[in-house]
Amino acid sequence: MNPLQNPISDPHTIDPELLNKLVHDALVWSSLHGLVVGDKNSHRSGLVPGVGMIHAPIALLPNSFPESL
């Protein structure tokens, strides 16, 4: 079987505690490195520096892609 056909990891088999740590570390890294965007749900976003910011969308785990792409 071609290893590219199988996902590198199945998020359902990852230990929940490890997954929570990965999420936390990714969000902290995003904040520290400026990977944030304004939150349009916050009325003060864009008016007060650092207020109403959320992390930009990221992929926490790698995904496999079909060979045809």
Task: Give the end-to-end Cα distance, rounded to a whole number of Å.
Answer: 19 Å
The dominant shape is: extended
Major beta sheet, strand line-up? 1-2
Query: Fraction of residues in helices?
Result: 10-25%
How many strand elements?
2
Q: Helical segment tally?
A: 1
Mean pLDDT: 79
Fraction of residues in β-strands: 5-15%
pLDDT under 50 segments (min length 5)? none
Indicate the radius of gyration in whole angstroms.
17 Å
Instruction: Report the structural category.
Output: alpha+beta
Task: Please give the largest β-sheet.
Answer: 2 strands, antiparallel
| Order of secondary-structure elements | HEE
Short note summarizing the structure:
This protein has 69 residues and is α+β, with helices and mostly antiparallel strands.
Layout of helices and strands:
Elements: H1 16-32, E1 36-38, E2 53-55
Antiparallel strand pairs: 1-2
Short key terms for the protein model shown above:
69 residues; alpha+beta; two-stranded antiparallel ribbon; 1 helix; 2 strands; 25% helix; extended
Describe the fold and architecture.
- The protein is an alpha+beta fold and 69 residues long.
- 25% of the residues lie in helices and 9% in strands.
- It is built from 1 helix and 2 strands; from the N terminus they run αββ.
- It has a two-stranded antiparallel ribbon.
- The longest helix is centred in the middle third of the chain and has 17 residues, at 16-32.
- It is extended, with a radius of gyration of 17 Å.
- The two termini are 19 Å apart.
- The model has no long low-confidence stretch (mean pLDDT 79).
